[in-house]
Amino acid sequence: MAQAWMPGTDRLGGGTARTPPGIGAPRTVWTVTESDPGAWSAHKEARRMVDEGHPAHLVWNPLTGEVVQTLAATRRSRLALGGTHQYGLHLDHGHEGRVCLVVAAVASREAPFTDGPMHGLAPILAWLDSWGVERAWHAGPPGREGAKAGEAVRRWARGGHFGHDQVPGSSAKGPGRLDTARLLAAGPPVEGAPRAPRARPGTPRSATA
């Protein structure tokens, strides 16, 4: 059974305003704090993000394994997941999907955190699995040339995992050129969690990883 608060994490209140349940595939958005994980703790960065009014669900230091949760999974993040509709209307993509969970890694986009140790990652993925987030990166690895608007929206609609820069209409630059296959391989998916489809022969791995 999915739990709103990830077991074993420190908690730091980031808001209790209720948000209506979304419709559509569950998804996770990965971003970075643009700070040094050797100098900044997850708790300090979580506090900063809360104070600035844009908390993530989880703030994770991959160097130490420290994880701080500031929002329940049933709440929506205000981490600038918005875009612009073709008619100029502002959209908040963080309110789309049954859940849209934001994980902020204490790292910088110039030094992808998947190139180093990722302590404490397996429990994070297991928690995301429990909320029905498919272990797939349908948009391809982040940090590359972005898809055209229509294709970005179609990929977003499929759910799964995304970089902050892959949210339709986002102007974010992070999380950098992550090794998505390595990121999603930490620990087996929990029983009953959706799995990425197997790649057909000749299909690039990034299309399904």
Features of the shown structure:
8 strands; globular; Lysozyme-like; 209 residues
In short:
This protein has four helices and eight strands; from the N terminus they run ββαβββββααβα. It is an alpha/beta fold.
Topology diagram in text:
Blueprint: E1 10-11, E2 27-32, H1 42-51, E3 58-60, E4 67-69, E5 82-84, E6 90-92, E7 100-105, H2 121-130, H3 149-157, E8 160-163, H4 180-184
Parallel strand pairs: 1-4, 2-7, 2-8, 3-7
Antiparallel strand pairs: 3-4, 5-6
Q: What would you note in describing this structure?
A:
- The protein has 209 residues and is of the alpha/beta class.
- It has a single domain, classed as Lysozyme-like.
- Helices cover 16% and strands 14% of the residues.
- The protein has helices at 42-51, 121-130, 149-157, 180-184, and strands at 10-11, 27-32, 58-60, 67-69, 82-84, 90-92, 100-105, 160-163.
- The strands form two sheets. The chain has a six-stranded mixed β-sheet. Strands 5-6 form a two-stranded antiparallel sheet.
